[in-house]
Specification:
Helix content is 58%, strand content 20%. By secondary structure, it is of the alpha+beta class.
Length: 204
């Protein structure tokens, strides 16, 4: 190897200055070309590919943002139902408060309460109402001195299913009611329901 380098050095020394300059320029050009082939060109290609991918990803992201902004907002289909339920619960709470206040005063007003529940049942019609006279000897309450029952008789017409729901709603919302006779007449349509309900009244 050393002998080879000595031979090459002797050859270079034998060249003229112009030939030496031309040779060194050629060697430098070959090195630059080799560096371009092995490193610069692949690096530039990879950089260009990454730039194109970045531009494509930005374009896709912008498209998705535009679609999201233009898409209609989700609609809560249960919102009207929840609003109605909340309103009914508030009405029921107010009604129960009035009932409690009337009960504390010793004069429960049954007619407005029954009419309020009747308005909530579609298809029912109030035919008549009648206030029942106080009965100091009716039922088990007759064993308690100073307790009487005061009640109302209602006659309501409508579909059988709605009549049944009306009675159940009264039972659930007003558990302290005392029930009297109940009669259902279905000879003609719609059926007619006659019912009696009572509340206990403390005599002063």
């Amino acid at each position: 190897m050393k002998q080879w380098w000595l031979q090459q050095s002797a050859r270079i020394d034998a060249l003229s200055l112009r030939e030496r300059v031309f040779m060194f320029v050629s060697v430098i050009a070959c090195c630059l070309a080799l560096a371009d082939v092995l490193w610069l060109s692949p690096a530039a290609g990879a950089h260009q590919l990454q730039t194109q991918q970045f531009v494509a990803q930005n374009a896709e992201l912008q498209r998705l943002r535009t679609e999201l902004q233009n898409s209609p907002k989700p609609v809560d289909v249960n919102l009207p139902l929840r609003t109605e339920v909340a309103a009914l619960q508030q009405q029921l709470a107010e009604l129960q408060s009035r009932i409690a206040a009337d009960a504390d005063s010793g004069s429960p007003a049954l007619e407005p309460v029954l009419a309020e529940f009747l308005r909530r049942r579609e298809g029912l019609t109030l035919l008549s109402t009648a206030t029942l006279a106080a009965d100091p000897t009716a039922g088990k309450e007759s064993t308690v001195p100073g307790i009487t029952r005061r009640g109302v008789e209602l006659k309501v017409s409508g579909p059988y299913g709605e009549l049944l729901k009306y009675v159940k709603s009264l039972e659930q919302a007003l558990p302290n009611l005392r029930w009297g006779p109940m009669q259902l007449r279905s000879e003609k349509q719609p059926p007619e329901l006659t019912l009696q309900v009572f509340v206990l009244e403390v005599q002063p």
